[in-house]
Design brief:
Layout (H helix, E strand, L loop, with lengths): L1 E4 L3 H12 L4 E4 L3 H8 L10 H9 L3 E4 L10 E4 L14 H10 L8 E4 L7 H14 L8 E4 L18 E5 L2 H12 L5 E4 L2 H32 L3 H8 L23 H11 L5 H27 L8 E5 L8 E6 L2 E6 L3
Parallel strand pairs: 1-2, 1-4, 2-3, 4-5, 5-6, 7-8
Antiparallel strand pairs: 6-7, 9-10, 10-11
Length: 343
């Protein structure tokens, strides 16, 4: 049996994939409404169809519970809980460590515990290991296995399939790594072992820092090119014809989701412990955070050109990644008009 803790978009999709591979999966969550929905065969994530959940429930390969003691019967326990930032932009490991405390008393000899939540290097074989050992009375790497495997998903994308996305895995010991590779190989087509939990944690941060910095770069270029009267979309379309040394990123009104706006700052925080300043990460954060204000400014200018105030106007924004222009449709009362923004 595989126990997966945290039934958000990561945990639910991973649960379904393991269930489809023939494993018996118990999904654990503190939210009783999620548990109730799953056991009734319903999905609460828009791009996960009800039929996928219902089929797993009907086949008795998947069920959900709020009872964390059920990890006692699991061969592997996979933690997929949030890792947000505090109000002061510091890592908040309360969900990870709280989960560790909840499951520790119920672990048995030989169980594999894997953390998938994005975090800074040293969390798995540091804070989490300490909590698990303290609560279980067992030793990680000797009595139970411990590993880290970063989640990799593109939510809502039809091309994002858990089984087809290579899975990076790092273990506390060689035996921990072997166990983790064996478990994930049942559900994922390609498993990529690395030398340690820290390397696996750092891999996920590199992936998200890469995206954050490049999004910030193209956002900054958008502002510069707009001032020059150059269409950034046309520039990107032309640049992406280069078959090497270029990967297209696109400007936007700000960073969405829970990964890119948050995860790079886990590394920035940890780097300060070693006396290092992450200038790229901090600058990218500043640029991306400023984009909503820039969009509002452009929108205000566009409305003013039509003699319309922002106050009282109803705005619908449609942005296409295919066409090189963005069109804003605005209406006030019963009148409506469209504004073609310059590049």
């Amino acid at each position: 049996m595989i126990a997966i803790i945290g039934l958000g978009y990561v945990g639910l999709l991973l649960s379904l994939r393991f269930a489809q591979s023939g494993a018996i999966v118990i999904g654990l969550d503190v939210d009783p409404e999620k548990v109730k929905a799953i056991n009734a065969g319903r999905s609460y994530i828009k791009y996960v169809p009800d039929m996928s959940v219902a089929e797993a429930i009907r086949n008795k390969t998947f069920s959900a519970s709020t009872d964390f003691s059920r990890v006692h019967g699991a061969e592997a326990v996979i933690i997929c809980v949030p890792t947000p930032l505090t109000k002061t932009r510091e890592p908040d490991l309360s969900f990870v460590l709280g989960t560790g405390r909840n499951i520790a008393p119920h672990l048995r000899q030989g169980t594999l515990v894997v953390l998938e939540s994005t975090t800074y290097p040293g969390t798995t074989d540091g804070e989490l290991q300490a909590v698990l050992e303290d609560g279980s009375g067992m030793k990680a790497g000797e009595d139970f296995h411990l590993a880290f495997s970063p989640e990799r998903q593109d939510p809502g994308s039809p091309n994002s399939k858990v089984a087809k996305i290579p899975k990076v895995v790092g273990g506390l010991t060689p035996a921990c790594l072997d166990k983790a590779v064996a478990v994930y190989s049942r559900a994922v087509g390609k498993v990529v072992p690395v030398s340690s939990c820290k390397v696996a944690e750092a891999t996920k941060l590199l992936e998200n820092v890469f995206r954050s910095v490049n999004i910030a770069l193209v956002n900054e270029l958008k502002v510069i090119y707009a001032a020059m009267g150059i269409d950034i979309w046309e520039v990107i379309e032309a640049a992406k014809t280069k078959p090497f040394g270029f990967m297209p990123f696109y400007p936007g009104p700000g960073l969405g989701g829970h990964c890119i706006p948050i995860d790079p700052f886990y590394l920035a925080w940890k780097a300060r412990e070693f006396g290092k300043h992450t200038r790229f990460i901090e600058l990218a954060g500043e640029i991306n955070t400023a984009m909503p204000d820039y969009v509002v400014q452009r929108l205000t200018q566009a409305l003013s050109s039509q003699r319309k105030p922002v106050n009282g106007s109803k705005i619908s924004l449609s942005v296409s990644l295919i066409k090189p222009t963005s069109t804003i449709f605005a209406s006030r009362r019963r009148s409506s008009f469209s504004i073609n923004l310059p590049p």
